[in-house]
Amino acid sequence: MASGLLGVCSPRGLLVKARNLNYLNTSHDILGHMTDLIYAEKDLVLSLKEYILVEEAKLSKIKSWANKMEALTSKSAADPEGYLSHPVNAYKLVKRLNTDWPALEDLVLQNSAAGFIANLSVQRQFFPTDEDETGAAKALMRLQDTYKLDPDTISKGELPGTKYQAVLSVDDCFGMGRSAYNEGDYYHTVLWMEQVLKQLDAGEEATTSKAQVLDYLSYAVFQLGDLHRALELTRRLLSLDPSHERAGGNLRYFERLLEEEREKMLLNHTEAELAPQEGIYERPVDYLPERDIYESLCRGEGVKLTPRRQKRLFCRYHHGNGTPQLLIAPFKEEDEWDSPHIVRYYDVMSDEEIERIKEIAKPKLARATVRDPKTGVLTVASYRVSKSSWLEEDDDPVVARVNLRMQHITGLTVKTAELLQVANYGMGGQYEPHFDFSRKDEQDAFKRLGTGNRVATFLNYMSDVEAGGATVFPDLGAALWPKKGTAVFWYNLLRSGEGDYRTRHAACPVLVGCKWDPYVQLPSGHIYLDLAHKSGMDVTNYAVNDHK
């Protein structure tokens, strides 16, 4: 028996080290194109049904032949000599064995699956990988944590705003637990393996056995420090499978650990028994200090929009400080927050423009990156899980039209702005709390762009989201919800040019639906309006500061 961590064997019989739970989610390398997978799967089903029809026709012929031969041989075997006394029967016997049975052999050996296998082989190159499946499981667990959903709720598909019914089977839940286990995430392993047991106890049929579940669960609770429960679960496992070698070794190890604990207590003159845990475990603390605030805002909790603050928020028509293009057709402007001033504009993009931008952005979608504050190089990060593409004005007239409209609304030039970035947040997509501007210790963050700091952010919303997907500001206690065709805008820098740290914000995970956000980061040096003026939208552009 291979020895595991601290002498106990994991379900794989291998040493499993706890890894950093801030794992990189790669599910969006494929989730942005999930609709293509839907059509690929539909094509495979049609191909499979065609194969089944061919197989059924072949089996029908074989079955007919078998019935015919069964009737004939029952007669011939009853009186072989009498049967063969008829010369026609003798001839037919020779013919059948020489011609008909070999023909049947050819029929049986016909490879009617060739077409289906060929189609499957072509489609397989587009299939998700093991890494993608793990990423999808992590996305579900992210939603589970952020929106405080228990595994039973997710398993039953009882999510707000859902249009279709979707449930997780025992085997699906087991896959969730095993994915968490393989990442050293024993907290979620326990939650999902307990859900598997619950569904098995309810009588649901599955290929997963209770022994398999108990194997993972006992090791996971041991890793969480619950020795009593690990011992109890291991005994349950052995009652189901007495020959389970690893469980037998673990049982002896757990019993020895308990005995050592009792001896220590006696040496310390302590008579109290080791108190077993209640089977409820705390979610591990991670790297993000405002995790609780961020996630509560994502749920719509803790928003600090007091009545007094709300009285300072107004709606108006925005003419862009006399911009000629907006004098005839001004935009509806709504205050979202007073300080720092965050505004929302309505009807910034038409449905036709939105669909066109999606169309040209989709082929370019790739895993979203962030700029390394020290090197200025773009790199992927676990705290930003989405797909994005960068659009130039030469890509399509709609890009130039959207950029010009943004310039009219904000009074900021797009000549020094970064390219229009389109972000797609699919299953569990998020961007954890971050600043859009560079801090003092990140002087070279935008050096490669040839620009200064990001003055402002213009964020467009190209879709409504059934649940989740808010843009939240943890330091403010503000939450902005996606509304298709609208845009929000705020300044990242103060008048002094210093960064406004209150603008630290995040894109919450999408619980139900799909979120498209084109945005622009606007660089400064060419600012037409007073910096006190704010405005916004749902495609993103960033503004950049003077070169210093």
From TrEMBL:
Q: Does the keyword Endoplasmic reticulum apply?
A: yes
Keywords attached to this entry: Dioxygenase, Endoplasmic reticulum, Glycoprotein, Iron, Metal-binding, Oxidoreductase, TPR repeat, Vitamin C
The source's superkingdom equals Eukaryota
Q: Where are the TPR repeats?
A: 211-244
Q: Which family is this protein grouped under?
A: Belongs to the P4HA family.
Described function: Catalyzes the post-translational formation of 4-hydroxyproline in -Xaa-Pro-Gly- sequences in collagens and other proteins.
Task: Indicate what this protein is called per its UniProt record.
Answer: procollagen-proline 4-dioxygenase
